[in-house]
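Lecture 7 notes: from sequence to structure.
We start with the chain below.
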Amino acid sequence: MTSHLRALRYRAFSIDLLVTTAVTGALVIGEFVEAGVVAFLFVVGSWLEARTLERTRRSVSDLLDIAPEKADVIPDGRTITGEPVPAEKSEGDLVYAGTMAADGFLTVRADSVGSRTAFSRIYTPGIIVASLIALLITRDIHVALRSS
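Predicted structure tokens for the same chain:
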């Protein structure tokens, strides 16, 4: 089973599902060049993502080599949680993406990545719902596909 069908089956909306929907929709309405452009841009984006991820891993590894063994850290997650002051965190405490270490070194484990993040669970279905609403209002598949 392909990744976009698996994503649809398990309601794990991802960029694969969006791209597949966009390409299929473009092919249905006869916009073959647009379908090709979307597919090409997706492939280029995936390549850039893989390249960037590898460079990031290398950089993080280099930073870990020079990091201290232990440090006291006060994470600043106010931009995400709305807390009035930085909160002190201990081992095992939950921190969110975008949390900044006010001082020292912080090691975190990502429990949710990619399609399991809060952003992905909101954004991707939102795009699909917006397209369906545009289709229901206009009864024009061209408008619905362009709204996404």
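Points to note: Residues 111 and 117 are 9 Å apart (CA to CA). The longest strand covers residues 75-76.
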